[in-house]
Amino acid sequence: MSEAVRQMFSQIAGTYDLLNDLLSLGIHRSWKRTVVRKSGVRVGMRVLDCACGTGDLAFAFKRAVGDPGLVVGTDFCGPMVGLARQKAATLAVDVGFRVEDALRLSDRDGEYDAASISFGIRNVDDPVACLREMARVVKPGGRVLVLEFGQPTGWWGWLYRFYSRSVLPFLGRLLSRNRSAYEYLPRTASLFPCREAFLGLMDEAGCFSSSAFTSLSGGIDYVYQGTVR
Question: Most buried by CB count within 10 Å: which residue of 110, 120, 125, 199?
């Protein structure tokens, strides 16, 4: 991954949770609960959450798998992982976190029942290779879940683009002192493949027996799920 992107996330780590809640009006938590539901994980299962940020999705998975289950979060940004570890300690939640690139996971083949990545796959150098690496560490029949921004259409799309290009950078600069980061995020989201185009990337990865997507919030986000061969 680009060192510039790593540095950008390092710089906004301290205000990341605040801005996630503010800029999405808290709806990002509902999106992540949908990812957990789509994963099909149950008590006792094992889950890997890549590009975990400060750990919100990993914690949601832990609630689903319970004490007998295992959840591990990875992120290439050390300050994000540090905050995730602090939150786990504060919440007394048994979730492990480590600094690691999603393209080079240290886990064994088939070690998990599910693997996820939320708002991170568009930041990796090779999204198809990332999908293959995530599928590698999941058991056959398990699932890979991707939560990523989309490109809504119609009047809702116009409103979303206005918000993303004007309001979001302004609030990002005001609260994080880093306007460029909150210009980068909507710009990359607007260019990244979504809907059938992203399913094409999953097909290209060649490691899923089936794949599908679910639209969230009128196409602002999509949950993609692939069943590992």
Answer: 120
| Token code pair at residue 58 | 């990993």
pLDDT at residue 62 is higher than 90: yes
pLDDT above 70 coverage of the chain, percent: 100
Tell me how far apart the alpha carbons of residues 114 and 124 are, in angstroms, rounded to a whole number: 19
Nearest to 68 by CA among 38, 88, 46, 41: 46
H helices present in the chain, as ranges: 3-12, 16-23, 27-39, 56-65, 78-91, 127-136, 154-162, 168-176, 179-191, 196-205
Rounded to a whole number of angstroms, the distance between the first and last alpha carbons of the chain is 27
Domain 3-150+195-228: CATH class, spelled out: alpha beta
What is d(CA 61, CA 55) in angstroms, rounded to the nearest whole number?
A: 10
pLDDT tops 60 at residue 30:
yes
